[in-house]
Design brief:
By secondary structure, the protein is mainly beta. 7% of the residues lie in helices and 36% in strands.
Amino acid sequence: MAQTDHLAARRDTLAIAHGDTSRLLYNGIRLPEVWPPRDQDPADLGPMRVPYLENPPEVIPIDVGRQLFVDDFLIERTDLDRVFHRPEKYEGNPVFFPQTEQELATYHDNSAVTYLGHGGVFYDPADKRFKMFYTAGWRGALAMATSTDLVSWERPDLGLAGGNLILPPGSLMAGGDNAIWLDVNAQDSMQRYKAIIERWVDGDWKTYFEKRADGPRHTLHTAADGKVWSTGVYTADAEDYTSFFHNPFRNVWTFSIKKSTKRGRARYYSESEEFIKGAAFDNAVYWVNADTLDAPDPAIDNPAQLYSLNAVAYESILLGEFYIHLGPYNRVCEEGRFPKITELKLGFSRDGFHWHRPDRRPFIEATRKEGDWDRGYLHGTMGVCLVMGDKLWFPYCGYSGVDPNGRTGMYTGASIGMATLRRDGFASMDADRRGGTLVTRPVVFKGRHLFINVDCPEGELRVEVLDESNRVVKQFAAKACEPIRTDSTLYKVEWKGGNDLSSLAGTPVKFRFHLTNGKLYAFWVSPDESGASHGYVGAGGPEYDGIIDTKGKYAY
């Protein structure tokens, strides 16, 4: 690296330490002067380039969140093998399915629907409940259900539109693709809940498509409790399944705007520091689509398209949920009276715009089997995932194409299930019995205690600290590290000479992990004995007062 580049990198590290993050992110990535980037080409079939992986920072601050191995951002060198993992579908699925008169109703040949499209599933610490927003019936009412465990759900009487209905079908704000977000850190308590609503006028197809031709079809709304919503503010033009998310790393609201390109459904990007003011989409740019690595379904052979894209902050990254549409075309499904195939894949971003999508297998897969509740047309939801204990929970919706009376339809038989994954379990760095090592790039921190997420009860992990010249810091050598032989999502690393790393705070160092017969998922340096990561916990969970891990759960 040239001397001027080296000095610039040092200034970036100091700028983060002193809170100058106008273009410099929490992880050392510097955003370009033109933001959002305008160099994405809708005609490009290739995977998105990720600049921060091509040119990572010289020194990476790691004070925010658990540090995940989903890419090579943190890795200087290694002979461990990266393995990507997929969740397990909950054995009691579906956990929520059509039961009420509204949910079982038939509308335009489609019936028996409880639909996350996009809806939203969040933990509300104020009420100590998980809240799920969904559509009751095809193009039906906006409704809410609550739970304490994500498995058993109740339909509370809200005293609004009957039972657990918030807005009745056919009203100005119900029946479309409602996307709802719980903003636990809202400065205005009347804006804790935020929504973008696809305007569904009078529940009539003809009126709906006439309104589409006339102009915008979406409005932005806020609410104190997710029940009584503000008057809508029109957005600029966008197609259905437009959504949004909060990027807390930069404190901006990002709008994931659906528009059609020559390659079919795709996403455009717009951001705003204030949610309602973001309605204009005035800085919208082409963002991302399915690409050549999203293989067609061989039984269908339609090109893949990006049906929707949701995202949430998880620990030190943004986690993206990509809805990949594989077909068949709507006309084929309507005539055959069966659901089309959409599946859920993942992407990871460290700057909020560029997505790294290394594993193109479905994260949550449609079964394609007639009679299965999640045969096809899978949807995730706003919030993406929740944290409960040592697991991440992913709500998703699937369509069977069949209602309880045996009636079939393209949008018939929608239920909601859960899939679970080990905490931080998206990717692990693995070693066999021969063992291997992983050395991080230079990192800098303010904390005192090193924690890891590791699975090696039949193997061993030792950790040592190196300076920037790869010399071992004697007090924190591998031979002085207490050997780790455990399976734990939160484990404290200790050395015989002490475990307090505060003497190294603010100084760039490297960690070298020596692993035998095991899996390493994450590491982080915490200021707390509890192991709190001070990273983000997706859509929340019962162990947290908000969306940041300030508690940890340290135990041997």
